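sry for the spam today, last one i promise. struct tokens for design, 382 residues
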């Protein structure tokens, strides 16, 4: 056994805690499931400590070869940024931990993008909640707060999976020097996937007290610098790259809808222009109405995650929509196709809807006709 740590208790009584191995691998798995904070989110991201939502223990993945059935890994968590975190737990005495386990984890990461539809993740989350007698909605609210938009969160999980934005965590009571070098190498080379090891040592006193000490391994200075640089160098979209990626992520039908919306903007040039955005998750194109001698007005955005965002706050405070009558007429027009604007025009929240909401051709045409009316109303006041 290794050295100990010391606790001061009851009138300065010094209690020595001696390092002790776990009885078995299952015990360490149970502790992670019961106490997700052991994954040391404050060490992974000191500026914004990671929080964890457990999706499932023993998360199944369908095998490509049906003869072999299904295979699984120990835990799947999501953090508050919807980044899937795959956790493999192995005991120190498991001789496979450096070769077979690393290869298995990389297999998981590669195949999860093919075999893991977001519907399956949601189903596993809800099933896991029911197994422990919890309401899924309550668990989700406790995780992200009552104001969190659950559908957008799951959409972001899907986008992260498609972009390969994952976190792979190897957990053991002791991380060997060999595994540490492998983890550091992978973390420096893989982007945007993050690869880490987590060592959770157990210390026990003579009278039965237990202390768990987690330590994150693998965040070398080079890996952190590379990933920080990748974050700074945000992707700049253009027409070709956006529609190619959009169709890959959202499918042909929604891509056609996005193209039809862009064509509407083109028909209104030069008064209305397309501005291409940046960002792997939320980049896309913004439609802006130009005004002589005044700042352009944002009309709406179509982003890479498949959302249609109505920029109502940008024109709600300007003529003619600064009048209650015109604002209510605008709300009524959107309401007739099932899209809801804030009752209070001063509210800064931007109404956001999946493009799939507008799959009915008549609904999309009504939206475009509404923006035609918005443009005419604003121009009439110029």
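last one done:
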């Amino acid at each position: 056994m290794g050295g100990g740590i010391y606790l001061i208790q009851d009138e300065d009584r010094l209690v020595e805690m001696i390092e002790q191995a776990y009885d078995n691998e299952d015990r360490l798995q149970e502790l992670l499931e019961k106490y997700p904070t052991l994954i040391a989110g404050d060490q992974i991201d000191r500026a914004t400590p990671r929080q964890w939502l457990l999706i499932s223990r023993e998360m199944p993945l369908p095998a490509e070869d049906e003869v072999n059935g299904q295979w699984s890994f120990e835990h799947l968590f999501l953090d508050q940024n919807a980044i899937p975190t795959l956790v493999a737990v192995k005991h120190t005495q498991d001789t496979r931990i450096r070769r077979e386990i690393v290869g298995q984890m990389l297999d998981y990461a590669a195949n999860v993008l093919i075999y893991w539809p977001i519907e399956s993740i949601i189903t596993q989350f809800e099933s896991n909640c029911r197994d422990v007698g919890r309401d899924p909605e309550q668990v989700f609210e406790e995780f992200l707060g009552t104001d969190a938009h659950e559908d957008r969160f799951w959409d972001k999980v899907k986008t992260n999976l498609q972009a390969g934005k994952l976190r792979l965590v190897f957990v053991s009571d002791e991380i060997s020097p060999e595994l540490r070098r492998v983890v550091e190498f992978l973390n420096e080379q893989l982007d945007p996937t993050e690869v880490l090891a987590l060592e959770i040592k157990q210390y026990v006193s003579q009278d039965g007290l237990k202390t768990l000490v987690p330590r994150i391994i693998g965040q070398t200075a080079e890996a952190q610098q590379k990933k920080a640089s990748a974050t700074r160098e945000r992707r700049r979209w253009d027409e070709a790259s956006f529609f190619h990626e959009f169709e890959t992520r959202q499918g042909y039908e929604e891509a056609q809808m996005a193209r039809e919306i862009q064509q509407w903007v083109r028909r209104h040039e030069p008064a209305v222009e397309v501005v291409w955005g940046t960002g792997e998750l939320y980049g896309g194109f913004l439609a802006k109405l130009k005004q002589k001698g005044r700042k352009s007005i944002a009309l709406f955005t179509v982003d890479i995650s498949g959302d249609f965002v109505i920029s109502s706050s940008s024109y709600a405070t300007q003529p003619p929509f600064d009048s209650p009558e015109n604002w209510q007429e605008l709300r009524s027009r959107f309401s007739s196709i099932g899209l809801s604007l804030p009752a209070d025009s001063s509210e800064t929240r931007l109404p956001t809807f999946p493009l799939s909401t507008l799959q009915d051709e008549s609904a999309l045409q009504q939206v475009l006709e509404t923006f035609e009316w918005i443009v005419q109303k604003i121009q009439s006041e110029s």
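Confidence is low (pLDDT under 50) at residues 64-72. ok im logging off now
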